[in-house]
UniProtKB/TrEMBL annotation:
InterPro entries: DNA/RNA_pol_sf, DNA_pol_Y-fam_little_finger, DNA_polymerase-Y, DUF4113, Rev_trsase/Diguanyl_cyclase, UmuC. Coiled coil: none annotated. Keywords: DNA damage, DNA repair, SOS mutagenesis, SOS response. PANTHER family: DNA REPAIR POLYMERASE UMUC / TRANSFERASE FAMILY MEMBER (PTHR11076), PROTEIN UMUC (PTHR11076:SF34). One of its GO terms (molecular function) is damaged DNA binding. One of its GO terms (biological process) is error-prone translesion synthesis. Signal peptide: none annotated. This is DNA polymerase V subunit UmuC. GO terms for cellular component: cytosol. The keyword DNA repair applies. It comes from Ramlibacter tataouinensis.
Length: 447
């Protein structure tokens, strides 16, 4: 038996843990530069606020309906997610973290009432982390995901499903008749893996509910749609086609990019931004135990500013030896910017991508560096010639202990001089404190 545990309105819930004034009020979380809605509370949904809706379209609801908005605080959300996942992992032998707010649990070998275990899990996460969750149980991943949908809907929309299925729902214990009632009450588009286009095709073929889909001919589904959709059908019938992956494969590439809070025109500002992005990417690279064979650097103007001259720069620079050394990756990115930069443009976005990723202990020798400790040219250092792994470990340890950017590459402060507020930083005018990861932003309780 598998479980899908999902936090309810994760981003909004994290904000409410530390600020009770936000509870029971319409709340939205805004994207980078405070441009669009990326999360909504149930109260905000009731006002008609849509996901990804531009903020300027709903801003009037602040005055008319009391809508509250905060800037995305991903440092807080990521830390809260880690805490939640750690608690959930105590309840099952295996866990697959599916997203920042979802994880699959494998209860193979666990005896007892799984609904009671699910309720205990919910109460423990709520007590220790402060986040409300729903639990869906089923013999396959797709059925567990569907059960989670039922558990949420039964709580949020009374009457949509039987009330006793709210919060924790186990479809694996249902009789065939009860399961078919659930299937008949659920639109096929709610099934995990059935997107809008597939839903439209199924609707055109007369398949509108999950029950219609389960009763469809598997061979015909495979022929008219795809093998993937056929596997979804088999999963709903109870045949497991998707296994728990408690050791996800490492990323094949790592991308860090960002739109700027304002246009920037100087090479130094782009260098500072790209240096920070390369540092972030290098840290992620080391966390998954990989090295990169090349780094891509890109920056561009905004196509939405029709009156601006347009320029898009993009190039990939191979490394002589695959590396996870921040100094090397940042140095290569810096020189890439200086090679690609052209004056007279209003740049709006930049980023780096690490590609040709390999295991750090793969033992690949690469090209021999025979003549100097820094190979390539003075303008493009593609190899350090030294093993800096201990230095990188020390830097990662210090940043984990004392907070992000406690130790950073010097070029990441080229323009700002160490100030936390970068001239190019995305607008986060409504960001709440990073309560759990910054000493100076921790909440204070006065006696």
């Amino acid at each position: 038996m598998l479980a899908l545990v999902d936090a309810n309105n994760m981003y909004c819930a994290c904000e409410r843990v530390f600020d009770p004034r936000l509870r029971n009020r319409p709340l939205v979380v805004l994207s980078a530069n405070d441009g669009a809605v990326v999360a909504r509370s149930e109260e905000a949904k009731a006002l008609g606020v849509q996901m990804a809706q531009p903020w300027f379209q709903v801003r009037h609801l602040e005055k008319t309906k009391g809508l509250l908005a905060v800037s995305a605080n991903f440092e807080l959300y990521t830390d809260m997610s880690s805490r939640m996942m750690a608690v959930e992992a105590r309840f099952a032998p295996r866990q697959e973290i599916y997203s920042i707010d979802e994880s699959f649990l494998d209860f193979e070998g666990v005896r007892g009432d799984l609904v009671a275990i699910g309720q205990d899990l919910r109460e423990t996460v709520l007590r220790e982390v402060g986040l409300a969750t729903c639990v869906g149980l089923g013999p396959t991943k797709t059925l567990a995901k569907l059960a989670n949908h039922v558990a949420k809907s039964a709580e949020r929309k009374p009457g949509s499903y039987p009330a006793h299925l709210a919060r924790v729902c186990n479809v694996g214990e249902m009789s065939r008749g009860d399961l078919e009632l659930i299937f008949s009450a659920t639109e096929v588009g709610e099934v995990w893996g059935i997107g809008k286009r597939t839903t439209a095709k199924l609707n055109d073929a007369g398949v509108r509910t999950v029950l219609d889909f389960v009763r469809a001919d598997a061979a015909a589904i495979r022929k008219s749609l795809s093998v993937v959709v056929e596997k979804t059908l088999l999963e709903l019938r109870g045949t497991a086609c998707l296994s728990i992956d408690d050791s996800p494969a490492p990323n094949k590439q790592i991308l860090v990019s960002r739109s700027f809070g304002k246009s920037i025109t100087s090479a130094d500002e782009i260098v500072e931004a790209v240096s920070e992005f390369a540092s972030r990417a290098a840290e992620k690279l080391r966390n998954q135990g990989s090295v990169a064979g090349a780094i891509s650097v890109f920056f561009s103007t905004s196509p939405f500013r029709k009156n601006d001259r347009q320029h898009e720069a993009n190039a990939t620079f191979p490394l002589i030896r695959p590396s996870a050394d921040s100094t090397l990756l940042v140095g290569t990115a810096m020189e890439g910017v200086r090679r690609l930069y052209r004056s007279g443009f209003n740049y709006a976005k930049a980023g780096v991508m690490l590609v040709d990723l390999q295991e750090a202990d793969a033992g690949q020798q690469g090209e021999l560096d025979l003549f100097s400790s820094v190979s390539g040219t003075a303008e493009m250092p593609r190899s350090t010639g030294r093993d800096r792994s201990k230095l990188m470990d020390a830097m990662d340890t210090l940043n984990q202990r004392f907070g992000r950017d406690s130790v950073r590459i010097g070029s990441a402060t080229l323009v700002s001089g160490g100030s936390e507020t970068r001239s190019w930083a995305a607008k986060r005018e409504r960001r709440t404190p990073r309560y759990t990861t910054r000493w100076d932003e921790m909440p204070m309780v006065l006696a």
